[in-house]
Design goal:
Blueprint lengths: L3 E9 L5 H11 L3 E12 L4 E5 L1
Parallel strand pairs: 1-2
Antiparallel strand pairs: 2-3
Length: 53
């Protein structure tokens, strides 16, 4: 069973960062990633918004 690791981060699917990037990095090093989501970013053609959780 792989070691577990936790990230506390926001979701940022557009820029390739945030908790998605953390989880991908953990997987590359054979860790089992867990996450606590602190915010969600939504993007439209004209704007973006950040929603704290």
């Amino acid at each position: 069973m792989p070691h577990k690791i936790l990230t506390i981060a926001g979701s940022d699917t557009l820029a390739g960062g945030g908790l998605q990037a953390d989880l991908a990095t953990f997987s590359n090093y054979n860790f089992f990633g867990l996450s606590v989501t602190t915010s969600i970013v939504t993007v439209t053609p004209d704007d973006f918004q950040i929603f704290p959780l």
